[in-house]
Amino acid sequence: MSAASNRRIYIVGAGFSGREIAREIRSKGVFGTVVAYLDDDPGLIGARLDDIPILGPIDRMESHLRRLPADEVIIAIPSADRQTLKRIYSILERADLRKIRILPRISQIIDGAPHFIQTRDINPHDFLGRSPVTISLRRSLAYLRGRRVLITGAGGSIGSELARQLLSGGAHRLYLFDHEENSLYEIEKELRILQDAGVGEAASVVPVVGELKDRDFMDFIIGRLQADVVFHCAAYKHVPMLEANPVEAVKNNVFGTKHLVDAALKHGVSRLVLISTDKAVDPVCVYGASKMLAEEIVLHASTDSTDSMVVRFGNVFDSRGSIVPLFRKQIEAGGPVTITDPRASRYFMTLPESASLVLKAGGVGEGGTLYILDMGEPVLIRELAEQMIRFYGYEPGREIAIETIGLRPGEKLEERLFSPDERPVPTPYPRINRLIRRPRFNGDLAKLLSVLEPVCFYRADRSTIYRNRHALRKTLHRFIPSVEVPEHEPEY
Question: Could you tell me the CATH number of the domain that includes residue 415?
Fold first, then answer.
C-alpha cells in the first residue's frame, strides 16, 4: 500500500464540491481516507455524509484534530472569497497543519463536477488582490463548441491555462502550438491526464511544434489545420532579457504575429484574439514596443470574414517568470527578497481569472476592437514581498531581508492599462472594458514594418543593417517616441 493511500484527510466544506471530492477519494482508494468534513453551517455540524462526520465550526480545528488526527486538508469551497480563505488558512496554520490543498475558485469547477486532480497546494496569491469574478465557462465557450481552436504559446502560463479551461468548451480539436517542445509536452500530458480523470469534454488534443518567425511554415500549418479560432499567446516577454536581445524581440513578437495574421486571413480563420500587456502602453522598452506593434497588426487585420481583436491586461500571479515564483525561491533560500524600488507597483490578477476573461472576451468581442481587463488597484511590489514572506511564516526585515536593487533596463516604476488619449468604456460583461482609441502610426504601420524587416530578416540589398540593434531602436524611437535609446547602444 502506498504512503499516499494512508493519508488521513479533512475536507473543509461539506457542500457539493466537498462531497464530490470525498466520493472520488473513496472510489479510487489511492489518495487517502477522508476522516471528517469541517463546516461552519450549524445545520450540518454533527451530521454524517456517507458515514463521514461533519465537524465544526472551523475555528475549533485544533480541538477536532486532537480527537481525530489528520495529515492533510483540502479546502473545497470554490465560492469562498479571499478573506474567507485567509481566515481558514490562519486557523489551519495555528493547528500546525502544513499540507493544505485547495480546490480553486475557477469556473470549470462551478460548471461541473470537481475532481481531486484539480486541487493544488495553497499559494500566497490565493489571498492577494481582489476576489476574482466568476464566469460560467459553459455559456462563455458556446461559440467554440464543435470547432477547431488553436493556441499559440500553449506551453506558457496563459496558453496552458486557456487549454485547461477549453477542455470544458466542447471544442472538436484543440491545437497546442509552441516552439518549445518540453513545455508543449508537459501541457499535452496534463490535458490527457485531466481528460482521463473525467475533467471536461472529449476533444482531440494535437500538439504542434513550430516557429512563428517562419513565414512559410505558418502559412502551411494554418492552412493545414483549418482552425476556426486562434488565441495568440506566444511572445518573448522578459523585459531585461529582451533589452539585451531587441532584434529577436521584434522578430518574434512583431513579425511572428504578422505571419500568423497573414495566414489566418488567407485561410479563413473566423476569429483571432491577441493577448497583450500593459507594457504596450507608452512603451519605454523594446518588449512593450513590440506588443504595441502586434496590437496594431491584429486590429488592422479585422475583415468581414475574420474578427481580429486584442485583450490587454497586466501581470498574472504565479505566471512563469513572474515576480511571485522568484520571491518564493528567494524566501525558500532564506532571502534576501529583492525588489527594484519601494515605490514600484504593478497590476495583478489570477491566472484562471485572466484566462476565463480572455475566453469570454473572445466570444462576445467585436473585430477591430481592443479590450482591457479590469485589474482592480495596483499592488506595491514591496507590500507583495512582505505578504509573501509572512505567508511562509517569517517576519519581513527581521528574519527575511528585503533589498532594493534598482530598476533594470526597460522597467518603469508603474504600469498603466491605457494611455491618456485612450478611454475605457464598460461592456455588459463584468471586468471587460472596451477601449476607445485612435489607430497608431498615422497610417504608417506598413512603412514601419518595411523598415524593421531587413533588420530582422537577411536581405542581400540591405545586409548592412541586418541584426543592427542600434538601427532597430532608432527606428522604433522615431515612430514610438517613448521608446528609450541607450546612449551607448552597440550595433550588434
Answer: 3.40.50.720
Look-up: residue for cell 533588420? 455
Whether residue 342 is contained in a domain is answered as no
The three cell numbers locating residue 159:
496558453
**Boundaries of domain holding 8:** 4-122
pLDDT below 50 — which residues of the chain? 1
Task: Give CA–CA dist 153/148, Å, rounded.
Answer: 16
pLDDT of the residue at 250: 98
Between the CA atoms of 276, 282, 284 and 287, what dihedral angle is there, to the nearest 10 degrees? Answer: 10
**3-class SS of residue 54:** strand
Quick check: is 42 in a domain?
Answer: yes
Amino acid at 121: D
Instruction: Single out the residue of 267, 265, 258 nearest to residue 224, CA to CA.
Output: 267
Give, in order, the Cα–Cα distances in Å from 37 to each of 17, 45, 68, 77, 80.
12, 9, 11, 12, 16
Separation CA 124–CA 257 (nearest Å): 34
225 half-sphere exposure, CB direction, 13 A CA radius = 32
Measured between alpha carbons, how far is 207 from 205 in angstroms, rounded to an integer? Answer: 7
Q: How many Å apart are CA 309 and CA 273, to the nearest integer?
A: 5
Q: Are residues 41 and 80 in the same domain?
A: yes
- CB of 52 within 8 A of CB of 37? yes
In a domain, 129, yes or no: no
- Asked whether residue 65 falls in the same domain as residue 199, the answer is no
The Cα 249–Cα 140 span in angstroms is 33
Q: Count of domains in the chain?
A: 2
Judge whether 148 and 159 are in contact, CB under 8 Å.
no
Return d(Cα 436, Cα 424) in angstroms, integer: 6
The answer to whether 299 and 308 have CB atoms below 8 angstroms apart is yes
User: Minimal CA–CA distance to 474: which of 286, 348, 287?
Assistant: 286
C-alpha cell read off for 44: 450540518
Distance CA 156, CA 178 (A): 8
55 in Cβ contact with 45 (< 8 Å) = yes
Percentage of residues in the chain having pLDDT higher than 70? 97
Does a structural domain hold residue 23?
Answer: yes
Final residue of a structural domain among 57, 90, 122: 122
pLDDT digits (tens, 9 = 90+) for 264-312: 999 999 999 999 999 999 999 999 999 999 999 999 999 989 999 999 9
* Residue among 385, 309, 376 at smallest CA distance from 342: 385
- Extended beta strands in 284-407, E state: 307-313, 315-316, 337-339, 345-346, 348-349, 370-373, 379-380, 402-404
How many residues would you count in the chain?
A: 492
Rounded to a whole number of angstroms, the CA Rg of the chain reads: 24
Structure confidence at residue 439 (pLDDT):
87
Cross-strand partners of 178: 209
pLDDT of residue 106: 58
Query: By the 8 A CB rule, do 309 and 280 touch?
Result: no
